[in-house]
Amino acid sequence: MKDAQLVLDARTLKLGVAGPATASFFLQVGSANLPMVGWNDFVVVVLGWWTEALLRLLNGQSSREEVRFMDGPYSVLLQSHSDEVLRLRFLSRANGPKETDFGEVAITPLVESIVKGAEEILAGVRALGAWSSDEETLETAVASLRRARQSRLGS
Question: How far, CA to CA in Å, does 125 sit from each of 31, 51, 70, 122, 136?
Fold first, then answer.
């Protein structure tokens, strides 16, 4: 089983003039980096999608979620395998459809990396004096994800 984590660089956070904040982040699964190291995207919005998807999986509201990267033809398919394990597939629609099956990944490192990254981004946005409904939604979802994870761990 591989570890999967969202690698995020809060130092690259930039606020859009008329749009959402962007930053560099990517999904690391073992030695693979998806879509690629340095991928820049609408970080608050995409983190919100990841957080909500994992929350639905942890709460048993869903057994399968597809999470897109906004700026590009890439998505990740997450499927519940057990309480601690997800099956992960990376989908690319660039130059024709392609799927990479990464098999089973531990859910804990993925959830922890998303919570940590979201908290860093939210602190960065707050420090820059910007806040919108996107940040509010992410902050609420991260708190819920943290509670759901603690509840499943029994701590």
Answer: 30, 18, 19, 5, 11
β-bridge mates for residue 22, sequence order: 14
Helix (H, G, I), strand (E, B) or coil at 89: strand
How many structural domains compose the chain?
A: 1
Query: Residue 24, CB half-sphere, CA atoms under 13 Å: how many?
Result: 8
- Give residue-wise pLDDT tens across range 74-128: 999 999 988 889 999 999 988 888 989 999 999 999 999 999 999 999 999 999 8
What letters, b where the CB count within 10 A reaches 16 and e where it falls short, cover 104-142? bbebeebbebbbebbbbbbebbeeeeeeeebbeebbebb
What is the number of helices (H) and of strands (E) in the chain? 3, 8
Domain that includes residue 27, residue range: 2-153
Helix (H, G, I), strand (E, B) or coil at 72: coil
CB atoms within 10 A of CB 89: 15
For the four alpha carbons of 109, 111, 117 and 119, in that order, the dihedral sign comes to negative
Cβ burial of 33 (10 Å; 0-12, 13-18, 19+) is middle
